[in-house]
Automatic annotation (TrEMBL):
Keywords: DNA-binding. PANTHER family: CYTOPLASMIC PROTEIN, CYTOPLASMIC PROTEIN-RELATED. Pfam families: YjbR. The keyword Nucleotide-binding does not apply. InterPro entries: YjbR (IPR007351), YjbR-like_sf (IPR038056), YjbR/MT2646/Rv2570-like (IPR058532). This is MmcQ-like protein. It comes from the Bacteria. GO terms for molecular function: DNA binding. Transmembrane segments: none annotated. Signal peptide: none annotated.
Amino acid sequence: MTPQELRALCLSFNAVVEDFPFNPETSVFKVLGKLFALTNLDARPLTVNLKCDPEDAIRLRADHAGLIVPGYHMNKRHWNTVTVDGELPDRLVRELVEDSYDLVVAGLPRAERLRLDRP
C-alpha cells in the first residue's frame, strides 16, 4: 500500500478529516474529532497507528511479529503500530484501518453515531 492509498483509505470513511495537530508531517485522521489513525506519510518504512481491540492486538502482534507492534507513543493496550510497506497483505491493512474507525465510532455518543448513518 502506498502512502497515497493509505491516505485515500482513511479519508474514504464517513465524516473523516485529516488534521495536523502535532507537526506538518504527521497526518491525524479523525472521525467527529476522535483519532482513529495517525501516520507520517513520508516516513520509510511507512507505519500507521491504529486502534485495536486489546485481545486482537495481542494476537496480531504474535501473528505478525515486527510488522504489528504496540502503538508508538500510544496506549499499548489499545493501539498498534502497523508497518505498511508491502509485507502485510493490503487486505489486512484495509481491515485494520476499518476496524480502528469502527471502534472509534462505537465509542461515540449515540446521537453522533446516528448522524454518521445519515446520507
